[in-house]
Design a protein that fits this description.
The protein is an alpha+beta fold and about 500 residues long. The protein has 14 helices and 19 strands. A hairpin with a 6-residue loop joins strand 16 and strand 17. The longest helix has about 30 residues.
Length: about 500
């Protein structure tokens, strides 16, 4: 039984409840001014014996002052609240026999019978929790110092509670006053660039989907501050519950405007260097290759003059034929160069039926070279494309012409054209032939201006066709490449938006 008795309580059941509690339990008799019962957890907590404990008042195991006031004031307040039917729950400091402070939480209830002023205290030891809080606070301070050193802003979003926290750097980045009252979501979307809003919403809807098991993200968006556009990268961690729903997102924000501007400048510089190199190559060709047919014509004219003098008119036909060939080559070269120079200068685009355009090209080749049996197949996942008709026609024409021109020693040429949707905004196309193939060491240079792998006598051409293809594809932001080996045909891949 409790010291002095509290009446009408089964002693065995009472002892079981007290002793098996996970908390320290103390019974305090207000009128006697001392503790009258306890469990083993209480003795372990305070490092005290039972005989000594039952002689003590709560103030005897508490510091003299709490929060600058006498501890007795707080103790009496909570005890009276419990005696009046309340259920106070509060943090407290107890002292063990060595005087060590023990942070804890206490819940008080009045203990029956109610003709006596007795309260029961259930005490939770907070030392481990306080230690964890201390570690967390230290980690938070270290994180804050790290973020300050990197220039990163930070946010913490409790999505299940619609609570969004910004640090001071985030407010500063968004040029907003530091305030807990501000509607952060509304303020953010006000400065988010209008063109980026839908993509931003789509990204976060995808991130918040229970079907998305990603635990991290990285995304880039633009904001407008005082008529100045800033580019911002956000990356962070995603925390989900057992159902896969997002409960919390912790992320950082970084202004990458300077870096992106430098990257664009680097790309522009690279493009200018490529253009300059192209112009240098063109100047060389203009001073060398374009002069060769003219030199031939000049030489043949001199021979004509000599033959005319001696009246050997029969040989004039041969000379005239050679002159005509040189002139034809010259005109073709100039025509191809003009066509090359015009690529990308006409911005007009239209929706083009790929199958119809391809069939038109195949029929033209059949009419031009009827002795060649062209076998054509297509596999089109992308059936229509928005492009400049002249440029797209020239692209397909050059790739098909290449397949027909460099077929194996037979009158049959097999061409397969395919298109498929790409993972990003660009779609992939492929022209496959069963021709003589191309050695891998030429897979890059074959797209250079005036690059030829065969002499003029072996195969007619100006060496501009594949350069045409490369320039057209790159003007759309795509790329072109070759898969081929000698004797095994070629596969020309290219991407277009």
């Amino acid at each position: 039984m409790i010291d002095g008795g509290v009446g009408n309580i089964d002693d065995q059941k009472y002892r079981a409840v007290i002793q098996n509690s996970h908390d320290a339990v103390m019974i305090f008799d207000v009128d006697r001014g001392r503790f009258i019962d306890y469990n083993q957890n209480t003795l372990d907590l305070l490092k005290i014996s039972g005989d000594v404990f039952t002689t003590l008042h709560p103030i005897d195991i508490s510091p003299q002052k709490l929060l600058g006031h006498p501890a007795a004031e707080f103790a009496n307040k909570y005890i009276n609240e419990a005696l009046n039917g309340g259920n106070p729950f509060f943090e407290w400091i107890h002292l063990d026999t060595a005087g060590n402070e023990i942070p804890c939480q206490i819940r008080l209830v009045r203990f029956p019978p109610f003709d006596r002023r007795v309260v029961r205290a259930s005490i939770i030891d907070l030392r481990n929790q306080k230690e964890i809080e201390k570690v967390l606070q230290e980690n938070e301070e270290r994180l804050k110092l790290t973020l300050e050193s990197t220039g990163l802003a930070c946010f913490d979003w409790y999505t299940d509670k619609s609570i969004l926290h910004w640090d001071d750097k985030t407010f500063k980045m968004f040029d907003l006053p530091v305030s807990s009252r501000i509607n952060k979501v509304k303020a953010f979307f006000k400065i988010l660039l209008k063109e980026d809003r839908q993509a931003f919403l789509n990204k976060y809807q995808e991130l918040l989907s229970p079907n998305n098991d990603s635990d991290s993200y990285i995304y880039e968006f633009r904001i407008r501050i005082n008529d100045q556009v800033k580019e911002v990268v956000t990356r962070g961690s995603v925390y989900r519950n057992a159902d896969g729903n997002v409960e919390r997102i912790i992320g950082t924000l970084k202004d990458v405007s300077v870096e992106r501007a430098a990257e664009r400048e680097k790309i522009r510089t690279s493009q200018l260097e490529a253009k300059n190199k192209e112009l240098e190559q063109f100047a060389y060709i203009a001073s060398h290759d374009l002069q060769a047919p003219l030199n031939t014509i000049s030489g043949l004219i001199k021979l004509l003059e000599q033959e005319i003098e001696v009246h050997e008119l029969e040989s004039l036909k041969e000379y005239c034929g050679l002159i005509d060939q040189s002139l034809h080559r010259m005109f073709t070269l100039i025509k191809d160069l003009l066509s090359y120079a015009r690529i990308g200068t006409n911005p007009s685009k239209e929706e083009i039926d790929l199958e119809a355009l391809i069939v038109q090209q195949i029929n033209q080749f059949k009419q031009t070279d009827p002795q060649v049996n062209i076998q054509y197949e297509s596999e089109l996942e992308i059936k229509k494309i928005n492009a400049n008709r002249t440029e797209l026609q020239l692209l397909i024409q050059n790739l098909f012409s290449n397949a027909i021109k460099f077929r194996r020693k037979s009158d049959t040429c097999s061409i397969h054209f395919s298109s498929k949707k790409g993972k990003n905004s660009n779609h992939e196309f492929c022209v496959t032939d069963d021709g003589i193939g191309i050695d891998s060491k030429y897979h890059d240079s074959i797209f250079d201006l005036f690059q030829r792998l065969h002499t003029q006598d072996e195969c007619e051409g100006t060496g501009i066709g594949l350069a045409h293809c490369k320039k057209i594809v790159e003007s759309y932001g795509g790329k072109i490449w070759l898969e081929s080996s000698p004797g095994k045909g070629s596969r020309f891949h290219f991407t277009l938006p």
